[in-house]
C-alpha cells in the first residue's frame, strides 16, 4: 500500500503543479472521462468545468499535501484522503496562506495507469 500511496500522491501533485496549457495531455492521462467533483463550496462540477479550471489556474501557486493516506476500496480502486495547503511563492520561501482544505479523491487503476474518477474538497474551518 505504501508504494501505491506514494504513486497516488505524486499523481495528485502532478494535477496541481503541471502547466496544463503547455501539457494538456496530462489531463486525459489523469482524469477519467466520467470524472466529477464536489468543490469546497458544495458545487458539483463536471469534468469540463474542472478541465477549464486546470487550464486557467495560476501556475505560480504551489500546494503541499499533508497527512496523506489511502484506503483500498477494491483491487483496482483506492480513495486518497489528505489536507491540501496552498502556498504563495512571494519570496524564495513558501508561506502558507490558508489552513487548507480536506480532500478526498477516488482513483481507479486502468491497466497499469491510475485515473481519478471523483474528487471532493471540504473547506477547513
TrEMBL record:
Coiled coil residues, start to end: none
One family from Pfam that matches here is DUF4440
* Record InterPro entries: DUF4440, NTF2-like_dom_sf
| Organism domain of life | Bacteria
Q: What are the DUF4440 domain coordinates in residue numbering?
A: 8-116
Q: Which named protein is this? A: DUF4440 domain-containing protein
Organism equals: Nitrosomonas marina
